[in-house]
Amino acid sequence: MLRTLAAVTALGLAGALAACGGGDDDATVKDSAAAVIQVGSVYEPQNLDNTAGGGQGVTEALNGNVYEGLFKLTDTGTVEPLLAKEQKVSDDGLTYTFTLRDGVKFHSGKALTSADVKASIERVTAENSKSARKSNLAVIKTITTPDDATVVVQLSARSISFVYNLSYIWIVNAAAKDLTTTADGTGPYKLGEWKRGSTLSLTKFDGYWGTPAKNAGVVFHYFTDATALNNALLTNAVDVVTSEQSPDALAQFTSNTAYKVNNGKGTTKLLLAFNDKVAPFDKPAVRQAISAAIDDKKLLTSIWGDYGTPIGSMVPPTDPWYEDLTSVNAYDPAVAKQKLAEAGLPNGFSFTLDTPSYDPHPTAATFIKSELAKVGVTVNINTITADEWYTKVYQKRDFQATMQEHVNDRDVVWYGDPDFYWGYSNPQVTAWIKQAEEARTTDEQTALLKQANKQIAQDAASDWLYLYPQIVVASSKLSGYPLNGLNAQFFAYDIVKN
Amino acid sequence: MSKRLHLYIGLVLVLIVAGAVLVSYLWLPFAPDDTSGGRLAPPGGDHLLGTDKLGRDLLTQLLIGGRIALGTALGAVAVGGVLGLSAGLLAGFATRWLDDAAAVVLDILIAFPTLLLAMLIVAGSGASLGTAILAIGLAMAAIVARLVRVLVKQVLGRDFITAARVAGVSWPRIVLSHVLPNIAPVLLVNLALQAGLAVLAEASLSYLGLGTPPPNASWGRMLFEAQATVLTSPVAAIAPGLALVTLVIGMNLTADGLRLGVSDADR
User: Fold this and answer.
1) Distance (Å) from the alpha carbon of A276 to chain B's nearest alpha carbon
2) Is B221 at the interface with chain A, CB within 8 A?
3) Quick one: which H or E segment has residue A365?
């Protein structure tokens, strides 16, 4: 459920906006401005709060649409100021001073002040916060608000990702109550109505400080079944599907000019995560053996056909420190057997694989079981629900190995935290990741993270099975929708329906 | 349709599935975890029904699914039959307030949908075939118990029971030689019907990911997996669907035939 947990704050490098549209004459602009965009998705939010386990659906629907951060991530992965007009960093890199944009109002009518920003950051770092980026913000020492438009943040150590991490933080009205069912942000849309199990609507906010939305509103339609979702698109009940879940349904759209199939860049990785703290996975040789015994490419083809990307580490190609590491611990059953023998397990062993009960995990687990049987390793598949995963695996660490989708970009840094659920602990890697975070330049940061990632891949800290494709299918009448990493966010304000 | 035809068609359908399952213990076209077939290969050639996403032979999966379906039916009927019969007999002999209480408890249990009850049990103790069988069996027990209670009450009101009591026959003996033989035909019909429902319940649980865990190919799981590929590989959905229909209709027709036989005997 990192998918759920991480997605709570997942912005995703790739989840940025592919700005299309523009060039319309006045009449079309007028028509399309009145249009309400119908969006189809399988990710209904658990609740509307991204610090309370709202899931990836809440990011998809509300991030950038209803809520905004001090900064936002663009399509190319650069961070742009949003609610922050300017920032100053002290020479020692420990004091950040942000000046807020003027004239920004919450949907409730209240003006944005520095107190809201302070409260919003503190919501994410609070003890009961379920935000996946909480640990990255532990570096914050104090937040002060000298005046209504200025926020000063003191850090306990340099943090080159600090501004990037701020883009995960929604600025909410400090006075707002119960954000799990209501919303009060500064974005171009305000929350309309959320009919649980069915739809969530957003309506254009007339008091928006920036460029207004190019449409009158958005309705997210939630489906539990991908086939029903595709049928909704075929019958024009929805205009766009944020993320296709199966390659086999695509034929009906690729052959039809009324639809456009977009193959964007994703950041979601499917992991076979070992509990690196417990035997036999505490031995790198065992993890390397397992990684070498599984034909990741065949698995990818089985599940995604011609889509998706083989990946050799936690780092997707959109992260600045990406390197093709698919050759590290690559598929080779003979090497797998040899490594097992090295680890003192020439006759193999057996382990329990805690497998989330929803797609694609059971299918992937079946494949892994069959692959590992060939090198004498027996897998007992134990299917669990998303909630069980959170309590049993993520909180109690009561597992040998598990499967999980990790949606975030730039999340290799979690391997530097020995207390993370997978329990990977390599002091050298932890030191490199810490140094990277305290680096003075991005070049220095990139070099260190490349080095760390290579070591993590060589240690086979986990087995990174593949990178999901990011496929958006939309009616040909639609333009301006985001193409990349949409599992994490779906900016709707530039969408135009002709 | 005559009662015999019901019975015969029903038995033939059940026997087809049972026969195929027996064969599967002696011979399978491919090893269950053999993924060498290629993704979604069409029917024909080596793979009579084609392959699934992972390249596993569909016929092999279907046969293994048959084992699970029949195993569930037998297991759940055994659990439900034994528990239901025991509880029903006790309730049948109960009198006054105990009788009223038994009736109310059974009614409440029956009002609870079988599948929901099974889902609650599975959710509480983890998904496995054993849990699914137990859960379905328990839900079935309430239905059987209520039926048995009513049947026992009817039998106990008949003159030959009074005669047996007067003759000094003990209660356990009366149950064995008078009550059970008299309620057996109706009970049998009900159990045959319940077997069909158990097959459907297991398929539903597996479809929802709460039944037989992978890699075991339950028909319900096969249907779930085929859902996404129904346009490109319809056989993957049609085959388990047809197998499920064959077995359940077979069991229902058998029950129907038996029921008609029983009501004839009553006349």
Assistant:
1) 25
2) yes
3) helix A361-373
B210 and A248 within 8 Å at the Cβ level: the answer is no
Cβ contacts (< 8 Å) between A249 and chain B: which residues?
Answer: 228, 231
For chain B, the structural domain boundaries read 3-21+50-266
What pLDDT score does A2 carry? Answer: 46
- Choose among A251, A355, A366: nearest Cβ to B231: A251
Q: How confident is the model at residue A143 (pLDDT cuts 50, 70, 90)?
A: very high
CB proximity B210 to A under 8 Å: yes
Residues 6+ apart with CB under 8 A from A309: A300, A317, A466, A467, A469
Q: Which of B54, B127, B231 sits opposite A383 (nearest CB)?
A: B127
* Average pLDDT score over residue span A354-366: 89
Percent of chain A with pLDDT over 70: 92
Between A and B, how many residue pairs show a Cβ–Cβ distance under 8 A?
Answer: 72
Average pLDDT over every residue of B208-217: 81
Strand order in the sheet with A95-100: A84-89, A95-100, A150-155, A140-147
**Are B248 and B200 spatial neighbours (Cβ–Cβ below 8 Å)?**
yes
Q: Please, which residues have CB within 8 angstroms of residue A354's CB and are 6 or more apart in sequence? A: A382, A384, A389, A392, A393, A399, A400, A401, A402, A403
Say yes or no to pLDDT of A497 above 70.
Answer: yes
Q: From CA A412, how far away is CA B234, in angstroms rounded?
A: 41
Nearest to B94 by CA among B104, B80, B109: B104
Using an 8 Å CB-CB cutoff, list chain B residues near A385. Answer: 123
Q: Can you state the angle between helices B58-93 and B235-266, rounded to 10 degrees?
A: 30
pTM, 2 dp: 0.80
Out of A227, A370, A373, whose CB is closest to B228? A227
Q: Are A256 and A262 in contact (CB under 8 A)?
A: no
pLDDT per residue as tens digits for the range B86-104: 999 988 888 788 888 888 8
- To test the contact with chain A by mutation, choose from B34, B35, B52 the residue with the greatest count of A C-beta atoms within 10 A, namely B35
What CA–CA distance (Å, rounded) separates A303 from A428?
A: 36
- The Cα-based distances of B120 to A130, A301, A391, B127, B128 in angstroms read 27, 36, 19, 11, 13
The CA distance from A96 to A82, in Å, is: 16
Quick one: which of A339, A306, A307 has its CA closest to A463?
Answer: A339
- Beta-carbon contacts of A257 under 8 Å, excluding residues fewer than 6 positions away, are A476
Closest residue of chain A to B34, computed from CA coordinates:
A370
The alpha carbon of residue B38 is apart from the nearest alpha carbon of chain A, in Å, by 8
Candidate from A284-298, A316-330, A422-436, B161-175 with smallest mean pLDDT: B161-175
Q: Which of B227, B230, B235 to probe the A interface (max A CBs under 10 A)?
A: B227
Place domain B3-21+50-266 in its CATH homologous superfamily: MetI-like (1.10.3720.10)
Separation CA B48–CA B25 (nearest Å): 19
Greatest CA separation for chain A = 74
